[in-house]
Amino acid sequence: MSTPADLSTPEDDFDGSPYDLLAQDHDEGHRWAFGTGFTDPLEGIDTSVPERLDPGALVRYCLALGDDALIYSHRLQEWTARLPELEEETAVANIALDLLGQARMLLARAGGIVGQTEDQLAYFREEKEFRNVRLAEHADRDFAELVVRLLMFSTWRLALFEELSAAPDPVLAAIAAKGVNELAYHRDYAASWVIRLGDGTPLSHAKAQAALDALWPLLGELFRPDPDALGRADPGAVDAVLDKVLATAGLNRPTAAALAPVGGKTGRDGVHTEAMGYILAELQSVARAHPDATW
Amino acid sequence: MVAPVAARTPAYDVAAGTPDPEIPTLTIEDLGILRDVDYYPERGVVVTITPTYSGCPALREIAADVQGRLNRAGFERVTVAIQLTPPWTTDWITGEGHRKLAAVGIAPPSAAPRRPAGPVPLTLGRPPSPRCPRCDSPDTRLTAQFSATACKSLHRCTACGEPFEAVKAI
Predict the structure, then answer these.
(1) In this predicted model, what pLDDT tens digit does every residue of A61-81 receive, in sequence order?
(2) What distance in Å separates the CA atoms of residue B142 and residue B123, rounded to the nearest whole number?
(3) Counting CB atoms within 10 angstroms of each CB, which of A166, A255, A285, B144 has the fewest?
(4) Can you say whether the dihedral through the CA atoms of A232, A60, B82, A290 is positive or negative?
């Protein structure tokens, strides 16, 4: 979207259209368009690391939470223009946008400590350097998987962010506190769809149960001990929410064991499923082909 | 949560007139996005703004607008700082903001929900739907929790049949 130069009228000539007001603020190379020109999402915030914290551990933890959001957001963006109704399009796109915003701030928090930008971290790390849980990279095969996976992820992340709102790093605490309201909307959206599918037709019920059975093994990884963690989601609180939704939906809680680590390692250790390579190929290819490009 | 009242200075007034890129009839002051305007002899004007949602793509545009408006008004040294905490709440939208929202057909938010300490409770079923900004009927229903922007939900008025957006109370 470009702004014709003749719209850059001086303020005195303002004729009352609010869109002219926008246009006049973007002369001299400041062309107005969403997404052009990225800036530090933590601009002006005190990003000094509290003395009692290990900066290395803080970087690793912010990368882990940032990568969860970045990769999950990418998976949701893939659904754009493929969802059954306009209302679900806007919902899923908005959830993806919220998670992308959380990812930007978390990667900027980590990057600020090690002298890298959010873009360098998102676009120029290798697969083994990404710390997201394997649940985040799963490719949803149908709408039932989309909402069941979102219920699992957002219930856990909401419980975690509530705890992190009091984290000893004030920047992480602020990012988490901001995310709580967003994640509550994501969880409630997912829960309402899981109930509608589970309590719907025999076909929707069967698909919801199949999605739950397929995804359940990825849940355990979310609760693995992490020496870098600055907070933890209470498994009992997460279970209570999931059980309530499943009971209302008439779905059975699966008993499948957690997906095993590979050589003792999981997503947090940079060991991912086959899906991850394809995600990064799509996410990173333009930035890697044109590393110095600007909009 | 009551918004702290920033001192009205010439620099504040210029910054406060910056339109919101999504709903340009409202200013960033109307929406509670503008948090503070300070002057430091060594740094010049420092404008503090806060994002509505983490992923709000308008924040960078707002920062550029604020900078440009202040520069044109004669303030040469301007810094725009972002504030994350306390997180933005719709309670910071001013009375004027509510009036302008309703005037463009967007239902203003009700008071933000007060949560007791402890986990955010699961909300199932349809939340209450605001009065229709067009015909003022209370007989409306929620059609989607998310709308064209993250901060709004989508509704339909049963009385006049028109769809409308509402700002979600957070």
Answers:
(1) 999 999 999 999 999 999 999
(2) 14
(3) A255
(4) negative
A105·B54 Cβ contact <8 A: yes
Is A17 a residue whose pLDDT tops 80?
A: no
Q: Which two tokens stand for residue B88?
A: 């933005």
Over residues A193-211, the mean pLDDT reads 98
Residues 50-89 of A with CB under 8 A from B: 87
Cis peptide before A225 (omega within 30 of 0): no
Which tokens go with A211?
């999605």
Q: How far apart are the first and last CA of chain A?
A: 12
Q: Does A165 touch chain B (CB under 8 A)?
A: no
Considering the entire predicted model, what is its pTM?
0.89
Option in B57, B125, B150 nearest A34 (CB):
B57
pLDDT of A50 strictly over 60: yes
Window 17-56 of B: residues touching A by CB (8 A cutoff) are: 18-19, 21, 24-25, 46, 48, 51, 53-56
B63 touches chain A (CB under 8 A): yes
**Percent of chain B with pLDDT strictly greater than 90:** 65
- Residues B100-129, mean pLDDT to the nearest whole number: 86
> Within a 10 A sphere around the Cβ of B125, how many other Cβ atoms?
8
User: How do residues B133-150 score in pLDDT, each as one tens digit?
Assistant: 999 999 999 988 898 888
**CB within 8 Å: B56 and A39:** no
Taking the C-alpha atoms of residue B11 and residue B147, their distance in angstroms, rounded to an integer, is: 34
Query: Residues 81..140 of B with a Cβ closer than 8 Å to A: which?
Result: 81-88, 119-120, 122-125
